[in-house]
Amino acid sequence: MVARSAYPPKPNRLIWSERLTLGSLAGLVALFTWLNLTGEHGSIMRWLVQCLPLLMFVPGLLRENHRSYSWLCFVVLIYMVPAITQVVMSLGFRDAERPPGYWGDPLMLLLVVVLFFAATLSSRWLQYWRLEANTRIEDEQG
Asked: For residue range 4-19, what is the model confidence (pLDDT) as tens digits?
């Protein structure tokens, strides 16, 4: 493993994709927190079930581990299915729990889609950046 100081600076696209990943992850956790605090069906247990699978990847994301980004993509797919279902159902049916101007479901879908694509790109670009750095260092040493 090469020392972190030997790496070249990160490309802007990698910096922005990492920021977008962390921002959309924080937005999704904040949305779940708010919906569980203000909703009549909200609870601490429901919040834990919604947020813990996402929050367990934060240490790996902060360490810039590309595998954490990749695994986060798989977990986010689990959130995408109910988000799509809820948005489609809210288009045709109205219930007392979700009034006509309800924004929670579309916002959740938007955050999940952005998180998925940003984490995918971050994982790939992080691998390319590390490969390029290791190749440069090997060329300089050899």
From this structure: 556 788 999 999 999 9
- Count of domains forming the chain: 1
**pLDDT confidence of residue 19:** 97
Burial per residue of 110-135, b for 16 or more beta-carbon CB atoms within 10 angstroms, e otherwise: bbbbbbbbbbbbbbebbeebeeebee
**Residue 30: inside a domain, yes or no?**
yes
Q: 32-49 in b/e burial notation, b at 16+ Cβ within 10 A? A: beebbeeeeebeeeebee
- Evaluate whether residue 107 is within a structural domain: yes
CB atoms within 10 A of CB 63: 8
**Residues ≥6 apart with Cβ < 8 Å to 107:** 31
pLDDT tens for each residue of 59-118:
999 999 999 999 999 999 999 999 998 888 877 666 556 665 578 888 999 999 999 999
| 69: containing domain | 13-136
Task: Specify if 40 maps to a domain.
Answer: yes
